[in-house]
Write a structure and sequence with these properties.
Blueprint lengths: L7 E6 L4 H12 L3 E6 L6 H12 L5 E5 L5 H15 L4 E7 L20 H9 L3 H13 L22 H24 L3 E11 L11 H20 L5 E8 L5 H4 L4 H11 L8 H11 L11 E4 L9
Helix pairs in contact: 1-2, 1-10, 4-5, 6-7
């Protein structure tokens, strides 16, 4: 599979880390030109620029804009800059929405579990001081020994700030419905090739109620619904729209979720391969979806999790 000499472009929203960056690298290695939109602080740019430099070594055209991808004014600016980069003969083959800008507040105060801590029982059984056992368990868990997740300290949550309507609305737009804003803008300006792909990202949080994930969960369901409509209504315009549901992946976005260490541990225990999903696993599938051979895949959710979702262990 190669995109060389086709003058194809990929517009990746959220392309400086995680799935977006891995996809940019993969597509560039296959000859696709890359346009990345990201929003990062100046202090993190040195490492990001190193990543972008590695992409440029593929001898493709590359452009990156560090800006808020969600304001209507910026969307117009991004589209204009994309047009300039593509030139007269460039074609937008892929739009990837990988924006991770959402609110991770709880919706209700948490009540502490009043049951006896199992570490107390373990310490008594071993005739050791509870503090020593407690410290050892938490240290091993922090070092990645995921089997200790059930008895390690539970996640801590804020007890004074909870999600409100504005938080919900902003998250739903940024991580959900903004994919339609971009699809409409780019289609109206006829930037898509006649066999284009629109890819959205979802997670298992679309079905599982992780604490602190309510707004993002709602956004993911909105995105999935909109993508089904894009798949139907934009099909006459040559667009295929699909959603990729990645397994638990150690990305900057995951680390912001309250209790993320426990989420990772649970995912490893469930995975038939006993590992987390890697950004490269996801990038490989997205690159396949961008291929000619995947032209009949439309309107579906594709799990890329190594069997994590279906595992009963």
């Amino acid at each position: 599979m190669s995109f060389e000499n086709k003058n194809y472009w990929a517009l990746i929203l959220g392309g400086s880390s995680g799935f977006g960056l891995a996809t940019a690298k993969k597509l560039a290695s296959l000859g696709m030109n890359i346009f990345v939109v990201h929003r990062d602080r100046r202090g993190s740019m040195e490492k990001i620029e190193e990543e972008f430099s590695s992409i440029k070594k593929n001898r493709i055209q590359f452009q990156a804009i560090n800006t808020d991808a969600l304001s209507l004014e910026n969307i117009t600016h991004i589209r204009e800059e994309l047009q300039k980069s593509m030139g007269v003969h460039g074609k937008l083959r892929l739009l990837m929405h990988s924006i991770a800008f959402g609110n991770l507040k709880l919706i209700a105060p948490q009540i502490q579990d009043s049951r006896q801590n199992p570490i107390q029982k373990l310490a008594t059984k071993l005739q050791l001081k509870e503090e020593k056992v407690h410290s050892a368990v938490n240290e091993l868990f922090r070092e990645g020994e995921y089997h200790f997740s059930d008895i390690a300290d539970p996640p801590s949550y804020t007890s004074h700030s909870f999600i409100n309507d504005e938080d919900m609305q902003n998250t739903i737009y940024s991580m959900g419905s903004s994919i339609l804003t971009y699809t409409q803008e780019l289609s109206q300006k006829k930037l898509f090739t006649n066999d284009a792909r629109v890819i959205g990202m979802t997670s298992e949080g679309n079905e599982i109620a992780w604490k602190g994930y309510a707004a993002v969960s709602a956004a993911k369901l909105v995105l999935e619904s909109i993508m089904r409509s894009i798949a139907v209504e934009f099909a006459p315009h040559g667009i295929r729209a699909n959603v990729v549901q990645a397994g638990i992946t150690d990305t900057p976005a995951l680390r912001l979720i309250p209790g993320s260490q426990h989420i990772r541990a649970n995912a490893i225990k469930r995975s038939p391969f006993r590992r987390l999903t890697q950004p490269e696993d996801v990038a490989n599938v997205i690159s396949m979806l961008a291929s000619d051979e995947a032209g009949w895949i439309n309107g579906t959710i594709i799990r890329v999790d190594g069997g994590e979702h279906i595992s009963g262990t």
